[in-house]
Amino acid sequence: MASLKRIIITALKSISRGRSFLQALLAFWISPKSDQTKVKQTKTFQRTREEFLKEAKELLLGPIDNNLFPRDGHSWITPNNGDTSANLDDPLLLLSKKLKEQFREGLQTNPACMLPSYNHQLPGGHERGQYLAVDVGGSTLRVGLVDLKGRGTADDGDSTIVHMDNYTIERNVRLLAGADFFKWMAWKIDSFVKKAIDAGRISKDGYESGVPMPMGLAWSFPLEQTSPNGGNICPMGKSFLACDGLIGQDLGATCNKILRELQVNVEVVSIVNDSNATLLSSAYYNPSTRFGLILGTGVNIAAHLPVNLIGKSKFGARPTSWYEQASHVMVNTELGMFGRDILPLTRWDKILKAAHERPDFQPLEHLVSGYYLGEVFRIALVEAIKTTGVLGGEIPPLLLEAYSMDTETMSLMVDGLDSGGKANAVFSQLYRLPAGNPSTEDMRFMQQLAGYIAQRSASIVAASLFALWELKNGAEKSFPNELEPESPFSDETAVELKIERTAVGYTGSVLSYFPEYKETLQWYLDALMLSAGQDSNEQRIELVQAKESSLLGAAVSLAGVMEEEGRRLDEKGTA
């Protein structure tokens, strides 16, 4: 009715201007149709999607290997056609050599990285028994009862965890200053032990006997280790205030003091860095493990290195007996701190760096870790939307917020069209896109872009591992020349030189869940071996999964310390 009235009014107005009613009526019906047939103006963009992806590939992958191609089908990488000849001009190999020199320098005097642990022995696989282990991570406190059954008797780390509790470290806990944080830890440990007693996992009579229950601690923060169960507390980062007022104080002594004050009958007997724990847990099952790799929110590598690589000042105050026993030592590299002035940065990396509160603290971590991969992808995607018309050229408001794209969502984009619509649905819901968005073309674009960023990450991690492997191998070969003829270290070094398959125990969400990341990293390791002229049939670096690595590694470390303590007591008794 309203539309008919509008027609009549419009027609009457036209009649008043000298037009007939019929002319006016025809003009009204025809003109809207004429307007609808007008060509709708469309946005114009600076370049095509193909041009953007071509540049992204050159920026992200060109500096590391200009022979790599975009993701094809289910593979990020194209093999090098079977060419096995050495390629000393390989840009990734050159980057690895630069990293090796930075690692060598860090091993001499830098107090912030390449931190030698007190543990100089890898597990023999014979360690058995039930042990209390605690893992203090960046987001979770885990307390577990670990049953070590010996090498060859368990399929994987999961089978050795007989009881475990997880406690989320919320922001309010991270902001607990000094001793308050360690009190929170002690309460959680006490709660776990009481529940384990109720479940019949721990003997109540044994726990209440007065003798403290030994505990192994995996500490996911820098630590200047001074003994098997002690080390100087260092700044923690990640918004933790637990170190406030405690910098330089002994971690083990601090924990044990608070445990006693709160009448928790537990004692810290062993402390190990989380990357070292990964190495230990893998070595417990695989005797050829010499590296531990963590790649999740952050990145780190632990390496089992000969002591001749490490400057004497790095060891701090240690008894002469330690040097008499140690030919090798586990080193927490703090890998993320390396790479300054040698890593190739794109304009998207520079935007991330410019907005970071500590832009030069962890250069390598910015390019490889789970915390930053999604942010690099977000920054590049925002530019692509503006300049190519991806997502219709309209930037979702949430996408303008820093770190609004996490790596889990990015990993779905890598799966892209292969995810059965899941990636499309998650992206559309997260960024509140209109129906029909993202389109198939949008998904294909984001799949390739995310793949390039992840591929670069895998290549840099591979270059880091290969650099450490070369550094270790070179030192192992020269070590015998520095030893006395009858040195007990000669046999240990000979064993190291005979290893054909060096295992890297790995853990972390990126390596475990990001589509094809582990396979791509392994491909790069193999490619670096070929570029360096190594025969892959004689030597190889192999990735092996280390499940529940922190808890298992803490338990293995504790078992080793207690075994050494028992041996020392036996020697005193027979003296």
Short description:
This protein has 20 helices and 13 strands. With 575 residues, it is of the alpha/beta class. It has a 6-stranded mixed β-sheet, with helices on both faces. Strands 4-3-2-5-8 form a 5-stranded mixed β-sheet.
What does this structure look like?
Helix content is 46%, strand content 15%. The chain has 575 residues and is of the alpha/beta class. It starts with a helix and ends with a helix. The model is unreliable at 11-19, 24-40 and 68-82 (pLDDT under 50). InterPro entries: ATPase_NBD, Hexokinase, Hexokinase_C, Hexokinase_N. Residues 92-284 form the Hexokinase N-terminal domain.
Which helices and strands appear, and what pairs or packs with what?
Blueprint: H1 2-16, H2 21-36, H3 49-61, H4 91-106, E1 115-116, E2 129-136, E3 140-148, E4 161-168, H5 171-174, H6 179-198, H7 204-207, E5 213-219, E6 223-227, E7 230-233, H8 251-261, E8 266-273, H9 274-285, E9 289-295, E10 299-306, H10 320-325, E11 328-332, H11 347-355, H12 363-368, H13 370-388, H14 407-415, H15 422-430, H16 440-482, H17 489-497, E12 501-507, H18 509-513, H19 517-531, E13 540-545, H20 549-574
Parallel strand pairs: 2-5, 5-8, 9-12, 12-13
Antiparallel strand pairs: 1-11, 2-3, 3-4, 6-7, 9-10, 10-11
Mean pLDDT: 86
Percent of sequence in beta strands: 5-15%
Into which percent range does the helicity of residues fall?
Answer: 40-55%
Uncertain spans: 11-19, 24-40, 68-82
Number of helices: 20
> Mind describing the biggest β-sheet?
6 strands, mixed
How far the N terminus sits from the C terminus, by CA atoms, comes to: 112 Å
* Shape type: globular
User: Which class of secondary structure composition applies to the elements?
Assistant: alpha/beta
β-strand number: 13
Strand order of the largest sheet: 1-11-10-9-12-13
How much is the radius of gyration in Å?
30 Å
